[in-house]
Amino acid sequence: MSLVLRTRLKLRLTLLKDRVHANRRSRLLRAPHVGSTQHCLPLWAYYTRGTCDPSTLIFRMQGQSVLAAATQPAAAAVRCPNSNLEQGSTNSCPSLHSRPPCPASPETRLGSFRRQSAANSRLNPLSNFARLQRQEAMSSTRVSLSQSTLQSSNLRRRGNPIWVRPSSLVKLPRGAGVSACLNLEVKEPRAPRDVGFGDKSKEVMEAEGKVLVGTYARPPVVLASGRGCKLYDVEGREYLDLSSGIAVNALGHGDPDWVNAVVEQANTLTHVSNVYYSVPQVELAKRLVASSFADRVFFSNSGTEANEAAIKFARKFQRHTHPDEKEPATEFISFTNCFHGRTMGALALTSKEHYRTPFEPVMPGVTFVEYGNIEATKDKIKRGKTAAVFVEPIQGEGGIYSATREFLQYLRSACDDAGALLVFDEIQCGLGRSGYLWAYEAYGVCPDIMTLAKPLAGGLPIGAVLVTEKVASAMKYGDHGSTFAGSPLVCKAAQAVLDKISKPDFLASVRKKGEYLKQKLVQKLGGNSHVKEVRGLGLIIGIELDVSASPLVDACRNSGLLVLTAGKGNVVRLVPPLIITEEELDEAVEILFNALPALDENSSN
After folding, report:
1. Sheet containing strand 571-574, strands side by side
2. Which terminal CB of the chain, N or C, has fewer other CB atoms within 10 Å?
3. What pLDDT sits at residue 148?
């Protein structure tokens, strides 16, 4: 027989004031990390069977939390005998053999406990407490009120010993029924941080080497799960993620609203192709048009596909607006340090030769000009020759270089004069990364075409080309298309992303955190001889070094921080989830600071 848990607990602070008393022999409950979610347990499960008198059951108030404790004759630290305590269990506590077995049912009446209290008082619970005190301390647990009564058919306890501590307590009247819900604030235990990798990682990496084309030089990390700004590998090691899947996971990992949107749409409609209309695609396009300069949208599956579409749109626009010319403008202007993708057209616009050389000849007619140099650009944009100018307002892969307002304004004016289109590649810097929904808003210059991708669908593959009506009017049925682009599933996910990042308060927080991060980096890293500059806008930050950044990136990873390189390999690129907190930024800066000696070790070698 056990304690009846039937009525709902309705404690009023005014009623409790007169009942507060000190009882040093009582103990507050503490419990170990036992897993995730909420565990609702009967109160009898927390006491030594037969050693406490339920007629003096007490609670201590702490704000809105209630911590259960037992007293009379004295509340010993309690260990439930089974790792899983089921209703009907009759196993006795192995650590307390002289005591009665665990109750078989949660419906024992109070009188039965009171009759046992005299015999139980002969036991010395303090000796049990002293013995258990020597064990490793367990993490604290918050016990909060629950308005629903406990279900006696689902009484299960998992984990290790429950601890009891002294405190100021509130004595409840006899016969008071209670219902309590134990909320375990779970924190995944960190596996020991070691430089090597375990058998699980080794197995995956060996398998990858046998079945995948070797196009990626991956570090020895096999990631298995993520939550918020944290990632976990298959060995359970935790990493603070300041790479965001290369600036993709703007909402971090496992955002609940994003997950709900994806699951709901997956259960409704996933894919129909662009042969048919679909509601999520139209709704997303309406959102993008309403929040930008654009009049129309074309969806693709990635950033490089978006730039390929922009190339086609620009050439078709020139042919459409100059129908009588035998050779309309087909050439393009791009800039040093730029990156626009790896497919053949986008690759031709990318300045880094080591990306282009193995696949030449690429698309002809591209001229590269020094990024940000107005004088060098003046003679390059020509009427009848230049179809479009491609530029990143903030270069990501190129090394986190930001354009000036004057430079972009000049490009806008020069394109207008030459009849060319101005294309902004905001695949990495757009959608809130700069602290503005669109990076062009920070400069006050609007393009004719803007390409998007990375964070738009929160991790699902998508690209988008936003265009003005004059550009869209040049495109006809069949001029371009895609089987998968703009699927209901991906577009629904993108709407969930836009719902959050388009809010003014959210964007203001990105700007604030970006400034905070730069200031912290300058304070902690600025005195190092290898650090040349900290630059960026919003939460796209670069740390330029006078040596290769790879040793620092490796040292950070071994210490639980994931960052990227950029530029010529001498820039540390920080593109964290936009939801990151200042505390997490502090942690990241501290790891970066502690990893700086790796640069000296590499230099000496």
Report:
1. 531-537, 540-545, 571-574, 564-566
2. C
3. 36
525-534 mean pLDDT: 96
Q: Decide: 404 and 395 in contact? Cβ < 8 Å.
A: no
Count Cβ atoms below 10 Å from residue 511 Cβ, excluding itself.
17
Q: What pLDDT score was predicted for residue 601?
A: 83
**Residue 142 corresponds to which amino acid?**
R
β-bridge pairing 167-171 and 65-70? unpaired
- Give strand pairing partners of 573: 542, 564
Overall CATH class of domain 256-502: alpha beta
Residue 586 annotated among the catalytic residues of the structure: no
pLDDT given at position 469: 98
SS (H, E, C) 377-421: HCCCCCCCCEEEEEECCEECCCCCEECCHHHHHHHHHHHHHHCCE
Cα dihedral across residues 22, 23, 24, 26: positive or negative:
negative
Chain center to CA of 551: 25
Which value, in Å, is the radius of gyration of the alpha carbons in the chain?
Answer: 32
Question: Which of the following is catalytic: 59, 313, 332, 339?
Answer: 339
Quote the tokens at residue 432.
């809130």
d(Cα 113, Cα 464) in Å, to the nearest integer? 70
Instruction: Assess whether 257 carries a catalytic annotation.
Output: no
67 with 144: CB under 8 angstroms? no
Residue for token pair 């640069």: 599
Task: Give the number of residues written for the chain.
Answer: 605
The CATH number that domain 204-253+506-604 falls under is 3.90.1150.10
CB 362 within 8 A of CB 347: yes
Q: b vs e for 384-410, b when ≥16 Cβ sit within 10 Å of the residue's Cβ?
A: ebbbbbbbbbbbbbbbbbbbeeebbeb
Say if residue 87's pLDDT is above 60. no
**pLDDT tens profile 486-527:** 999 999 999 999 999 999 999 999 999 999 999 999 999 999
The question of whether 335 is a catalytic residue gets the answer: no
* Catalytic residue (choose from 230, 316, 454, 513): 454
Pick the closest to residue 331 from 347, 343, 344, 349 (CA basis): 349
Each domain of the chain, given as residue ranges in start order, spans 13-183, 204-253+506-604, 256-502
Whether the pLDDT of residue 116 is over 90: the answer is no
Over residues 76-97, mean pLDDT: 38
pLDDT, tens digit, 9 for 90 and up, residues 539-548? 999 999 999 9
Give the three-state DSSP class for 494.
helix
Residue 554 vs residue 143, higher pLDDT: 554
- E-strand stretches of 213-306: 223-227, 230-233, 238-241, 296-300
Residue 605: band (very low, low, confident or very high) from pLDDT cuts 50, 70, 90: low
The answer to whether residue 144 scores a pLDDT higher than 50 is no
Mean pLDDT rounded to a whole number for the chain: 78
- Give 474-482 contacts, CB < 8 A, sequence gap 24+: 474/313, 474/316, 474/317, 474/319, 474/320, 474/321, 475/298, 475/313, 475/316, 479/312, 479/316, 480/298, 480/309, 480/312, 480/313, 481/274, 482/274, 482/299, 482/300, 482/301, 482/305
What does the DSSP assignment read for 70-105? Answer: E-SB----B--SSSS--TT--PPPTT-TTSPPPPS-
Give the number of other CB atoms < 10 A from CB of residue 278: 19
Q: Which of 332, 425, 513, 518 is catalytic?
A: 425
Token couple for 14: 């005014």
Mean pLDDT over 25-54 rounds to 38
